[in-house]
Amino acid sequence: MAELDAVVVGAGFSGLYMTHLLRQRGLSAQGFEAGGDVGGTWYWNRYPGARCDSESLSYSYSFLPEIDLAWRWPERYSEQPEILKYIAHVATALDLRRHFRFDTRVTSAAFDGAAGLWTVGTDRDDRVAARFLVMATGCLSIPNWPAIDGVGAFRGDSFHTGLWPHGGVDFTGKRVAAIGTGSTGIQSIPRIAEQADQLFVFQRTANHCVPAQNRPMDARTERAYKAAWAENREKARHSFAGDVAPEFYIDIMDLSDGELETELDRTWAQGGFYTQYPYTDLFTSREANDRVAAYSRRRIRDRVNDPRAAELLCARDHPFGTKRLCADTDYFETFNEDHVHPVDLRATPIRAIDETGVATADRHYDVDAIVYATGFNAMTGALASVDIRGADGAPLREVWAGGPVNYLGLAVAGFPNLFTVTGPGSPSVLCTMVSPIEQHVEWIDRCIAWMGDRGATRIEATGEAQAGWVRHVNEAADATLFPEADSWYVGANIPGKARVFMPYVNGLKVYRDTCDAVADDGYAGFAVS
Ligand code: N01
Question: Ligand 1 centre from 314 Cα, in Å?
Fold first, then answer.
């Protein structure tokens, strides 16, 4: 059996950078990737309208200034093919593909305490041993097929947005059911509606949504950003959300109604996440949040002609932004089209899917295709899908049955030399993703180098440090409105999943400082031998 320094699972932004750093240190690293090529999320999510809700100029590696400065993003928010092109370019430039086995899913990983090695197995019968195991498996990579009776019975075409066919899908002339109105549904529904003959949008919960205000890349903005590239990148690294947008300088509750209206008009015109970055009390004061939510509903009513449809599309059951905020392009106007029909699943729940379509409480919808925009088993799903066994043989999925526990979102007590990138307990999904990915990967790289320098071969989070971190992550979340929503952040989208708020809400800067302090302190909270 091959014996390596490290195995890296996943060839998205995280796994590629991790592999690059390990190889730069002269360590042997084998990567495995279930997809046929690099890209991670951007390899799988090819649904119509798939686009990044983070600004293109911030959504790339900061450790490659030459590529970054030369790269031309066509739009403010990049479409999936553009991002995949960028990742593929980086993989080629750094010659990273040769370190990966593609079309290969890691199925098991067990730590042998005596040898101090992980034995990793795949669905293609690979078996390799490695000192370190880095799970760079992404936060949103295990598609959630909803638990609806008869999902497999449908005789037309079924698509999950997270497993979209590479050749694309032509819905021209088709009757289509779209189930799910989160970020993905909101991006894809307008594009599907452009082709479909009839489109039925099955909505269980209206989500808060702001206009993306996507547009072709503005040449002046790009020039200004690149002229101050190093400062911008440094600012993003030490920001709350890994971005350059101005953050937290306005108390909503200090503003009169008129002032707030003007202020929100301004941020809505900027679009996207700019609508949540400036506000200090948006996620801590229900009253402040309610005022923004009310404004957002008014803006939707302005866009949807049919008042009943407009009311249906207005989010009410959770505070603004406490489910991941959606950003739309033409979503609400789509419902002004005669062939687009919203279906209110609160009033008429889906009873079953059958051979010919979708049966709700009050009627049957005959369709040719069903699109499931039903999300993912987020943050823990990919880790739980691998049979990972720690030093005493305990399976990670059982250790996490009551909710994920770890130290710094990076390491789990009882699982030596295992690192997770952007796992639960880290700010990850609350940020522009590439920034926390770089922070995690660089921290892991530094840790492995530090161990090498002092001849250490084993590092493991202590139970005490882990308990303290889990407590801190929970307390931080409980000081906000986030846990109120039935979101994937708390696992509420997966039946039976423990309800725990998984991301770390105090932001990237605080998190980075904490992780750096732990490292500076000789990896406090870890047992090293
Ligand atoms: O998934 P979701 P998503 N019957 O879980 C509905 C990221 N992302 O793929 O709210 C009927 O948010 C469910 O209804 P409800 C981003 O972080 C990023 O849209 O549970 N409906 C909901 O409407 C995002 O948050 C970008 O009541 C069912 C929908 O399906 C994350 O991916 C772009 C159902 C699922 O929404 C996930 O977004 C797109 C059922 N049984 C996405 N089960 C970027 O910008 C579920 N639903 C990078």
Answer: 16
